[in-house]
Amino acid sequence: MSPTPTIDVAQLNEAVREESLQVQAAIAEVRKVIVGQRGLVDRMMVALLCRGHLLVEGVPGLAKTMAVKTLSQVLDLSFSRIQFTPDLLPADLTGTLVYSPKTGEFTARTGPVFANLVLADEINRAPAKVQSALLEAMQERQVTLGDATRPLPDPFLVFATQNPIEQEGTYPLPEAQVDRFLLKVRVDYPKPDEERQVLDRMLGGEAPAVARVLSAAQIASLQRRAREVYLDDRIRDYVVALVHATRRPKEVGLADLAPLVAYGASPRATLAFSEAARAIAFLRGRGYVVPEDVKEIAADVLRHRILLTYEAEAENVTTDTVVARVLERVEVP
Question: Number of folded domains in the chain?
């Protein structure tokens, strides 16, 4: 194991504390419009700091689309919403080459994926060819039109929504694509007092205006700072132990989970853990990661990377249940 580079944690902590105030200001602007949904807003900022993609699952009407659109306004980033449908074509997403009779040449016409924040609404309603086109954009941050490859804007984030209660006319997302999402967040109904606030706002007229808090250059600087957050060797071992426990639960004393888990989390989960835990620490104004940061983000990192058996479905065991059991069992440093 290579030695961890020596850093001044106190100096880094002070820098992070100051710069995290910029992110908190952006979150405060988003919450002027979005009532409640604190977890969703925080996870959107985590995805932004990590340059990762976010999959949001929840029933219709929970302000998922409005949250992403509001975030783009606060960050002064270009925004594009794509409604995924069964008849969608890859060209509807990425663009295509258009022939000009006057010049006899093909010119590129870019699609809606060429934006900083792309909202893929009801992503599981599009067929495999569209998912394949989006997968290239998510992983390579580029799009191929004809024989030319065009880079996507920086930053480029895909925030996808998924409806869990309606399965007619949907296509299961390929596991390779699901694994590309840094986090999967589940959004629940608002509390009664929060829903009353929503009602009062809607009856009161126009939605609150938001200010542009961060620029693309500032976002890039914050992303670099988030990657500098200190991750101790013991925390790294803890992350690896958590991911390993999802693959071989017997080895940590969870023999009853072994027949319920078909496949555990991939190595990409380990990397996502380290990035997301650093971002959580950054949001909390700390220049170092503590075990609570890892625990806080664990379900969002792992729930879409664990495949369960039919036996688990028969017993109503979910991936969240598996993650909770693993967190209870693996020793905290």
Answer: 2
